[in-house]
Amino acid sequence: MHITRKLLSLAASSVLLWNTASFAVDDAELRKKGEYIFHLAGCMGCHTDTKNKGALLAGGLSFNTPFGKFYSPNITPDPVHGIGKWTEADFIKALREGVSPQGKQYYPVFPYTAYSQMQLGDIKALWAYLHSISAVAQPSKEHELSWYVFRVSNRGWKMLYFTSKEWENIAGKSAAWNRGAYIANALAHCGECHTPRNMFGALKTSQHYAGNLAGPEGAKVPNITHDVETGIGGWKKDELLAFFSEGATPDGDYTGGLMAEVVDNSLKYLSKEDAEALVSYLAEVPAISNVIKSKEKKRRSD
Amino acid sequence: MLNIASKLSLAALLVGTINTAFAATTPAAAPAAATPAPATTAAPAAEDIAKYRHHIMETLGNMKTTIEFLLKGKVAANAGSIADQAKVMAMLTKNIPAMFPKGSTTHKSDAMPVIWEKWADFEKLAQDVATKADTLAKVAVAGNAADTEAKLKDLGAACKACHKDFRKDN
Hints:
The complex is a heterodimer of chains A (302) and B (170). Chain A has helices at residues 2-40, 43-47, 88-97, 112-115, 120-130, 153-161, 175-187, 191-194, 237-246, 257-265, 272-282, 294-300; strands spanning 62-65, 68-71, 144-145.
């Protein structure tokens, strides 16, 4: 009797062990997928203060905007300063609705406007990955905003400029185009810098990817529509792929500043298939003639 | 686009210019003394050095491109010499920090002022470019295409590393 019980409990515990083991394998795969999503979604660039040797995803990077100075928050699994106490549902709500677990409305400097289009599976994978990194007990800084900017006004802003909707493939477009559109708009949020904004800081959708003279930190952000003269319509497929993997431009130059960060943190991680999908999408971004770089003009006269 | 031959001659011209410019740095002080208005001399000087290094950087980009043309067989092998072009890159990158005197940025220049705040970091990245260009020149002279391609990529990564921290992507 005693032995039977022991055997039974042994059997039970080995079943338990086996279950844990198989769960761990799935979990590792999920985390791996999540790490890929983490790269493509460009979380690193804003949530890590790389230049001051800040800890991974511990936030603290400042952003000067026309509305004041924002600081990126700590998104490590620290229970006090990070997202350690969040549930998966909290995380989904933050990305899809731009609302914190405490019900606070996020400012659109956090590109939930793009992330709300993410597939649920990708959000869950990202959540799994974020919980696998080291917790850092570093408090998030309060934003220093202009007197006329209030958190409550975010509600009105959302009514005007935001609809939460998961990305749906567009019929009649190729699978590669759809995948590329998803990567560019839901994950990599290219438009956050490459599309100009109106006076309320909302993207001018009619100027999709047409470049931005008032980019982050006053940068002039290039036109990446398919326009040959002022955009990247003249770039060949191989040239775009070289740009994604190395930051090399067709004229022999290498990108710098924030775009070099985007290459190093995100684009170079694109799988071959995804890089080609992004090329397919960019090749069909409607051409808009909008001169951003005076260099462009000079080069054409070479 | 310029053809390869004129690109090369342009590069040769620039190499000539850079040599003259370096040689001229000391005696140049004498004629400058003849012109008054010392308060305003700083701004035009910044503009000149910014333009000057822009031409050097463009030449480096041009050499990288022409080497690729030859490596990929887009043009006939006798259109130019990979080794010579790699040597131009090595020569032009020998002392990048000398082209960045303190505060020499203008509204047109994409050089970030942080260069002079983190000068040691800047020098380190510039030195890495020089080292990688030197290695490229050596393998290009040895003549193995695969090695040359790999070292050209290494050099490109060094260029990007410096641009990432110190050049605006305007």
